[in-house]
């Protein structure tokens, strides 16, 4: 609607205007058209026209005969007014020749079509009156005239667009509009092709896989074209005509499998007979309405694997993937529009009276957020009461009283048998009186402190004042048990203030009311228009009560919108029609309506099941007949398509736009998360830090071949390794306090050559050598100082250090000085230049030219390096001072040959070289992705992934009749999995340790899961119970065995990372 709107007809108009009424010049000839009261009158007339066409049904006239004359009078007056407007606009704009003529403007074309519909509707109503007068022609022409009315009445509800058209107006430069629509239209086109491809693909596959699903179990001697309920099986069951025992269901108890040849009105419109019916069935299954029953019917009719493969993949691609792709496209379009507005108008400013207008203040003890106008003393209260109002004690006391009121209301219990209805002034009543007086005093106290104008400035205070007046009326005995109780219940909403995070989240979700309110208004208008159109299309069907009056049509369309039994309406309608072509149009109409509307209300009312939405469509298709049923299906499918994909995407996009944070807040949040993660990374895990609780027992050596002239103390073994080889001249001393006679005379580890001398080698030379040495010493001192600073190190900003809290306060103050505007990005001062070798030079001239983000990345990388160095140093210290540190199972030595061999097997991995080692250029290969896939995990993990997948496939073939205890073929995979995992666990535990080693097998939840799966598999293999009773230990063991596929998540790094991010986000999701 907005895409094809003409930009403007004024010369030199730089902005695109989507309200055509405002484009008219204030000429004397059409001054009456351009006045505000005339425009408002025409909007009222458009709304009255929708009401009139909603009452224009035979059933409504039968109940209320006077409405026949009332609707005719209203339509006649409205037709005259809109015709006068049409003539006036044609007089000013011209009819066709001018560039901005009436017939060249899209909105004017829409208005002209609505006027033609009004003329046709009024003329046909005159003919109906004439037929009533001339009764001899009534029986012959009345039905024909009613069908002619159907051609003009259905489009008339679209005139409701004129009522809200002014609210859809926005202004943007034409080039920006073209760029937005060009990108969005291309994305929507791609998604539409994607959707149609899968619809056609599964339509063809359904025809090839299943064909006609019309075989039922019936009694012998039944006629295929004349089947009654007494001839069918109980329950009615699909069956397979093949004799193969693995091909579907076979009839029992003397029943035979027969193909029924009855009409679709009797058997239903679902099936895979030909492509149109198959596509219709595919769409119903993709809406997740009754797809399980379709799959069960296919399983009973053919081989089960076809149905499983077909329907599970259909749900994945069409029900989940396509819908999410549509949502992503709409969200991207919203983001693009938001960026265009921000670039054009700058940052969006916040209202001063909103709850989000807060600044940081220091009250002497801590930092806290306060309102901008909180310290203004506009009331008559003394300053001491002003401080009481702002105190945490007052706020907490009021929240406790609200909680007490909630507990009191929740404790109320109605007993209509032992308690008389007139005895309502009980203890709960007096408690409500006390609480109402307390909250009334709270409101008076706030008005006294803030003043009446300052009190009413905040919407929260207005809500509290409304509750005070409502609950004051509620405690009157006459109104105590009345609808006024809702004011007492609404008092619970004040508990949202108890959680600042919940309060902020609710403000963001429901936050500017204009955005979400406009979307709800748009959805309601869409529902009213669709209900009126459906009413005029199907109100003339006899004995079909779903569209006889407007209220019934509204309920039917709302049922489709909520995906609750919507398919029954088009089914009944199609059954009432006899024309096949009309049935196709009805089906398409309802599918489009349901697709585009239903999830909007699903989002609002959380109707997540989509249960029974096809009931409305099927009932309507059945009532309209076989010929018209396809059109009914098209109608409902189009409706469903629109509401499912577009409107839900709009709701999601609006909510995400409300949740969009400022760029500065995003960066501060990211910096805080990075700081916290770095602090945790600097510390070793608790399973390793436990060694620091024990006293130090470093490994010492003793030189016993030295002369006995003087005593030599024990020396650290790690120190002496750097200067001498390991021979019989060294004694290993486990404890420095033990005697020399109890010490083993030789070492148990191999000699490690000296890689780098810790001593600084330098020579006395000239001034250049001295200057270089001094520079190196200073560089090392600076780096050591930065390392010792830890994660609490201050971030360098503009040549000076600043903490995160001070950084945040500075941003808040900058926002305040700019008048509360929200900057689109965080404007930080330039960081000092961090060179690749770690030098910090705050006085470089290139500091202003580099981007701030680059320095943020450098800071994070440098802190990560420092944290890694600290962890490595802690591990070195523990390895020096504790002999059992990094010894698997406290038995395998650190440098033993067995551990070396196991490490080599465990860590063996395919290494794909991306660059040529000689030239440094990238190596071009056609199989780069395959090489990367091979190098994703180690060879041992690849073997276990394959073995686990094969074992899971083997488990899929287990059935109550084909049990693993009795089938040796299935036991092969079970034994292979247990043996391979035993070898894997032995190798990994020997090389990396079980728990108290740096690279232990049980270092996170995945390690615990591996041990759990391994233990369950070993117990099951050894036990292999043949008798499994319900709720027994054997059944519990077999249920626990089903967790084996989870091992894939621990073996594949990408899956493990996804699960980790999901679990890490649970905290914010719960909060």
From TrEMBL:
Single GO MF descriptor: monoatomic cation channel activity
- For this UniProt record, give its keywords in alphabetical order, as a comma-separated list: Membrane, Transmembrane, Transmembrane helix
The residues that cross the membrane are 64-88, 113-135, 188-210, 307-331, 393-412, 427-448, 460-480, 519-541, 584-608, 628-656, 933-957
Instruction: Show the InterPro entries listed in the entry.
Output: Ion_trans_dom (IPR005821), NALCN (IPR028823), Volt_channel_dom_sf (IPR027359)
Membrane topology classification: Multi-pass membrane protein
One GO BP annotation of this record: positive regulation of synaptic transmission, GABAergic
The answer to keyword Transmembrane helix applying to this record is yes
Q: Where does it reside?
A: Membrane
Organism field? Candidula unifasciata
Region entry Disordered: which residue ranges? 813-853
Keyword Transmembrane listed? The answer is: yes
List residues of the Ion transport domain: 43-340, 392-605, 939-1070
UniProt GO cellular component terms:
plasma membrane
Pfam short name (any one): Ion_trans
Protein name as it appears in the record? Ion transport domain-containing protein
